[in-house]
Amino acid sequence: MRAMVYRGPYRIRVEEKDRPRIEHPGDAIIKVTLAAICGSDLHLYHGMMPDTRVGHTFGHEFVGVVDEVGPDVRNLKVGDRVMVPFNIYCGSCFFCARGLYSNCHNVNANATAVGGIYGYSHTCGGYDGGQAEYVRVPFADVGPALIPEWMSDEDALMCTDALATGYFGAQLGEIREGDTVVVFGAGPVGLYAALSSWLMGAGRVLVVDHLDHRLEKARTFAHAETINFAEHDDVVVHLKRITGFLGADVAIDAVGAEADGNLLMHVTSAKLKLQGGSPVALNWAIDGVRKGGSVSVMGAYGPMFSAVKFGDALNKGLTLRMNQCPVKRQWPRLFEHIRNGHLRPSEIITHRFPLEHIAEGYHTFSAKLDGIIKPVIVPAA
Questions:
Q1: d(C-alpha 96, C-alpha 91), whole Å
Q2: Interior CA angle at 165 toward 77 and 327, to 5°?
Q3: SS3 annotation, the chain
Q4: Angle 162-172/327-339 helices, nearest 10 degrees?
Q5: Cα(381)–Cα(376) distance, rounded to whole angstroms?
Q6: Angle at the Cα of 27 (from 26 to 30), degrees rounded to 5?
Q7: pLDDT digits over 313-340, tens only?
Q8: Is 204 buried (19+), middle (13-18) or exposed (0-12) by CB count in 10 A?
Q9: Which terminus in the chain has less CB density within 10 A, N or C?
Q10: Nearest-5° Cα angle at 334, 329 to 338
Q11: What is the distance, to the nearest Å, from the Cα of residue 365 to the centroid of all Cα atoms in its chain?
Q12: How confident is the model at residue 269 (pLDDT cuts 50, 70, 90)?
């Protein structure tokens, strides 16, 4: 089969790989119809995540058709159209029993923290991802779900990570009616978090970024006020000024490891790999939220140290909540919002690339060219 293959930082290509096979009676093999490049895939592409091995296939957002099932699989059959959450989980361990599917203890040798994730380095279990023609899906009776007949493949694809994660980020903020919410980052997760904040009762939503095309999308798609941090000497001071000098009630970090805005932080993290990620957006969130407020962290960071203003968070009495999204927990609510027309997830998709041109897709997304917001990969194109 043809698959995207990692060859080192900024170096990917499409190569022939062995078609995945059933390795466990509970496995399924999915023929991928659509995949996506996630902002967190760029952390792998840039060499930010530890133990990303040459030959690994990325891609944790994908939908497809069941091509083969193991003898123990009961809930799927060949030909089913399915959506697959980015979490790989067993469904029965201590954490899965509590709905913490992203922290499953049985799918990752490094599971003291994160569970398994498709296509996200051996730190997350070493599973090949869906930027390929076929992908092996473990615990196929637990993770995947049939795509509702009324839902498009592109809407379903966004539910496998980006939409669910943005919605979860707003949930973690514990937004109360009338709250002012500030979202740092106008990528797909940030846009979905901003839009979801309205569904949870926010009275005012602001989005901070520095790319004009993403800020425009925040205004038109998420109906948010926007702040271009490049136009202000101190974005936190500006944020305080426009919130009555108190700060926002809730701040959501939807940026993560490669945040711009502070040259020293960016160089020590993204370039020199001395931190698990540039904490600029997270520190802005801590400084920009009011005392007693909440900070939700959705941006991906590596396991190393990062210079976070934890003392300020303590002294302000902040509530910090974070995790990788347990995707399937969000689906019942998201499906209702989509069916009722409150969410139209595929509206953020701006580019579609054939699998053979995936290197161009990564370069375009990494360099933020051509107004790109969300790229989709079409293996059959």
A1: 5
A2: 30
A3: CEEEEECCCCCEEEEECCCCCCCCCCCEEEEEEEEECCHHHHHHHCCCCCCCCCCCCCCCCEEEEEEEECCCCCCCCCCCEEEECCEECCCCCCCHHHCCHHHCCCCCCCCCCCCEECCCCHHHCCCCCCCECEEEECCCCCCCEECCCCCCHHHHHHHCCHHHHHHHHHHHCCCCCCCEEEEECCCHHHHHHHHHHHHCCCCEEEEEECCHHHHHHHHHCCCCEEEEHHHCCCHHHHHHHCCCCCCEEEEEECCCCECCCCHHHHHHHHHCCCCCCECHHHHHHHHHEEEEEEEEECCCCCCCCCCCCHHHHHHCCCEEEECCCCHHHHHHHHHHHHHCCCCCHHHHCCEEEEHHHHHHHHHHHHCCCCCCCCEEEECCC
A4: 100
A5: 11
A6: 145
A7: 999 999 999 999 999 999 999 999 999 9
A8: middle
A9: C
A10: 160
A11: 14
A12: very low
**Structural contact between residues 32 and 132, judged by C-beta atoms closer than 8 angstroms:** yes
Please answer whether residues 298 and 252 qualify as being in contact, where contact means their C-beta atoms are separated by less than 8 angstroms: yes
pLDDT, tens digit (0-9, with 9 covering 90-100), for 86-123: 999 999 999 999 999 999 999 998 767 789 999 999 99
Domain coordinates in residue numbering, the chain: 2-161+326-378, 166-322
Reading the block at residue 347, the tokens are 């509206």
Residues 2-161+326-378: name the CATH superfamily: Medium-chain alcohol dehydrogenases, catalytic domain (3.90.180.10)
- Tens of pLDDT along 36-68? 999 999 999 998 888 999 999 999 999 999 999
Q: Which residues of 336-369 are buried (b: 16+ CB within 10 A; e: fewer)?
A: ebbeeeebebbbbbbbbbebeebbebbebbbeee
Residue 193 in contact with residue 166, Cβ under 8 Å? yes
Angle between helices 188-199 and 212-220 (to 10 degrees): 20
List the structure tokens of 342: 């409150």
Give the separation between CA 370 and CA 376, rounded to whole angstroms. 15
129 close to 135: Cβ distance less than 8 angstroms: yes
Q: Are 209 and 230 in contact (CB under 8 A)?
A: no
The two structure tokens encoding residue 360:
């161009």
